User: Fold this.
Amino acid sequence: MLEIKNLQVQLEEEDKQILKGVDLSLEAGKVHAIMGPNGSGKSTLSYVLSGKGGYEVTAGSAHLEGNDILSMEPEERAAAGLFLAFQYPVEIPGVGNMTFLRTAVNSQRKLRGEPEMSAGEFLKVVRAKAKDLKIDAEMLKRPVNVGFSGGEKKRNEILQMAMLEPKMCILDETDSGLDVDAMKLVAQGVNALRDGKRTFLVITHYQRLLDHIKPDVVHIMAAGRIIKSGGPELALQVENNGYSDLLEGSA
Amino acid sequence: MVLPSSEAATRSAMHDDGLISSPGAWAKEVRQSAAERAQNQGLPERRDEYWKYTRPDFFVQESVTLEAQVSPKIQIFNNQLKAEILFENAVLAAETLPKVANCSIESLDDAADLDLHWVSDIYGKLELAGQYPVRRSLAALNTAKASQGVLVHATGQVSDPIRIHAVCAGRTDAIIHHVVKVDAGASVTLIETGQYGARCNVVMEVEVADTGHFHHIRVQDDHEIHALTHIFARIGADSTFKSFTMTSGGKMTRNECILELIGDNSAVSVAGACLGDNDFHHDDTVFITHDAVNCESRQVFKKVLRNGAVGVFQGKILVKAGAQKTDGYQISQSLLLDEDSQFLAKPELEIYADDVACSHGSTCGAIDEQALFYLRSRGIPEAKAVDLLTLSFMAQAIEEIEDSKISAAILNHLTDTLEAR
Assistant:
């Protein structure tokens, strides 16, 4: 699904290398997790893949189903099936959540040359999906993320993911700022989208989230590189011993 | 363009037949003194403090330089409102004046003949009061010369909004003067759409009695025009005055709003959402005087500018001695979509009472890159994402509109205007 090869990235504004050659191969239908200490480059990886400005790719490649995504605009990557659940979802006052969702769904359809979803059809679908995530009608009407609690913002990210039906979902520290109940709800939403074809890249600091979203593969990232990959047991090892053992091992 | 000396310009601007055209002693007297007022003050010049950011040339020169378009591409409120007043080429279509319950609507042209005392109590009087401390000689000139306008007297609750729609073609030079009186316990909403002329000098005088409520909505979207408007309002106790303007057209527009709060416990709001593109200059000049206790005033102006468009804001809150418990709020913000556009702001507070809360803020910024990326990452193309962030930016100004049906119509109009460009 997603092939990342020797991805090297530095900041545009300063000569600072953040990713120093990342290799990742994500098969369709699998859940991969990336763990790593602060500043290891996890969030940068998610931003570079989804097309945020401010970064310069100095080497390497990233292909989604064989398409070179690094040469695409962010909206084209989204239409190609990439989705990033933000660590800090952005508030957009004055734009209704529903308007935003419908604009996003139909913009992607338009970019893919598909017919737009009618207002009636959209309403039916969004209501059903919102209900599963315990998002009420009031939250759909309110401006995008304005006045939402931390949990509501993350649930709203998952609702967008459910509506946009991406092939490749990147979750950037979706567990940050969530209490246990909110985390379970979000994890349920994510698990409901696992269909054997959709691929997930879950970025997290803690093993906690991985109790609820069971990964197939766990990668440890440090100083801009993947230093170790393994099964779910790797996450437990981090939980028990921290990152220091792994970091020493790789040095 | 050479600006003629002010005395000569005043003479030339007043020497035609428009002056003192209506019969009736009161009108003659009021117009004569307004003409003298304008003459003594002289026409605005660029060195005047309040004309520093907006060149007065187009408004004072003899000839009209633009050709008005017949009508804008996108219409608002068309055939939706029951009560409509039509102006064609700066002349009121008097035969079409609507009948509205709890409200009398007459033509200014007939005022003297009709001997409407309430009109003579307001016409030119509020304009005169608004000449101090800042002189506004083009408004005085309007009082002297205007023969066209409507006289709206709300005597009770007027249930549906009244719309004034103006169409014009060619080089129409429009001088329009409206007079509005809202009685105690009465309420009325007035909507102005279209443009009176390729060059407009519009004055609206509004007297809101104690417990009266006045709402004004204005849409300025024709492009080939130079427009100067003044609203002079005097607001009594326990009453409301709200004026909202959406501007997306006009080569040069200056909207002045001069409000005086003379009764306690009242609330006023002047707001504007402005979408400027290319050869576009838009100026909001507001002067709010608090001369009563426990009144609230709000000024909320949002401008989104691109391709060299210029936005100006000059807003003042004057709190007189004794106007305690005043709550004054003023915000003027611009979103500059490129490096060619400009926003010039001059917020002013002058306070002579010691128990007041006044806040003001003026900002000028670029698009929020983080928000733009968020929208694009959801598949929304950049141009559409900028439009959504433009609407988001303007939301606070649109929220000043009390009637949710009208604010929804304005929002739709803004969305359509963005999509069409």
In short: The mean pLDDT of chain A is 91.
